[in-house]
Write a structure and sequence with these properties.
The protein has 149 residues and is of the alpha+beta class. Helix content is 35%, strand content 44%. It contains 4 helices and 6 strands; from the N terminus they run H-H-H-E-E-H-E-E-E-E. The longest helix has 19 residues. The chain is globular, with a radius of gyration of 20 Å. The N and C termini lie far apart (60 Å).
């Protein structure tokens, strides 16, 4: 009888402990917000404006390209605006959104695009990892890394 009570108490303590580590509220409702921000970024990369891009990327952006170049917020936006990085079309598939806590989410997807970088037509196929952070009530891209497929 003692052993049965001991296991019951231990199981209850473990369950209580696990529940106490969960963030308040559910992270699931944030996933559509993050996905919507990622979609706004896709559109802004095709038709870039300083306002749209500035609203979607963090001041601390670390944007890793598949070729090894790493952009900051300023260089990422500048390259899109001046045509060094020119997306004619972008298709996103196989996207997953994992909300880690109230302010952090991980987005993975496959990106295929037609490009016209510096006037040179091309195509890219990439796997993307994006880290999004809620800042001032809005989801912003904090970090991104691409690998060629």
């Amino acid at each position: 009888m003692f052993l049965k009570k001991f296991f019951l108490i231990a199981a209850s303590a473990a369950l209580f402990s696990a529940c106490s580590m969960m963030p308040a509220g559910s992270a699931a409702p944030a996933a559509p917000e993050v996905a919507a921000a990622a979609e706004r970024l896709r559109i802004a990369m095709i038709d870039p404006t300083p306002a749209a891009l500035g609203a979607l990327v963090s001041d601390d952006l670390s944007y890793g390209h598949s070729g090894g170049k790493v952009d900051t917020k300023a260089s990422f936006i500048s390259d899109l605006l001046d045509g060094k990085s020119d997306f004619v079309s972008i298709a996103i598939t196989e996207q997953t959104v994992k909300v880690v806590d109230a302010n952090t989410a991980i987005v993975r997807h496959t990106l295929t695009a037609d490009t016209n970088d510096s006037g040179k037509p091309g195509k890219v196929a990439l796997k993307i990892l994006g880290v999004w952070q809620k800042q001032g009530g809005s989801w912003k891209l904090l970090a991104r890394q691409a690998v060629r497929i």
